[in-house]
Design a protein that fits this description.
single chain, 151 residues, Alpha-D-Glucose-1,6-Bisphosphate, Chain A, domain 4, seven-stranded antiparallel sheet, 4 helices
């Protein structure tokens, strides 16, 4: 088991960052070029939601089933936890929080990964994947007019 923790700061209100983080259409956008989904719902993450989708790395590798279940969803406190598995992963437990800061907000991701002997590789992938979500989120915030322009 490995744990990856990342934080990203946004010059945007916490509620706006939260709304992007829990929107499946935004998830598809921030993952574009890295992971494609078949069967991903639209709309917001919901408490108790359980789904199996097909995922393909880079949209080129064969799609594989991946199961996600939302264990905790607190819209008021801007926090959720999911339990995920599939595509070579025994367990991928994700906790996401958005908190207000003096200059906007901070989004934190904590991912606990068990993929057997491949855990170190999946941990590297997770760090890369969750880091790459930051720039597309900034673009979405800018497009929605809730964040300063990017230079």
């Amino acid at each position: 088991m490995r744990t990856i923790s990342l934080t990203h700061n946004y010059a945007a209100p916490a509620r706006d960052v939260w709304e992007i983080a829990i929107d499946y259409d935004c998830l598809s956008e921030v993952m574009a070029g890295l992971v494609t989904f078949e069967g991903l719902p639209t709309g917001r993450v919901q408490a108790g939601q359980s789904m199996t989708v097909m995922v393909s790395l880079f949209g080129r590798l064969p799609a594989q089933p991946y199961h996600m279940e939302v264990l905790v969803f607190d819209d008021e406190q801007m926090h959720f936890q999911s339990s995920e598995l599939g595509a070579g992963v025994k367990s991928w437990n994700h906790t996401l929080r958005v908190i207000p800061t003096e200059n906007g907000s901070q989004l934190s991701d904590t991912i606990e990964i068990d993929a057997g002997w491949a855990t170190p590789l999946f941990a590297l992938w997770a760090r890369y994947l969750y880091t790459k979500r930051h720039a597309p989120r900034l673009r979405i915030l800018q497009r929605r007019g809730t964040s300063p322009s990017l230079n």
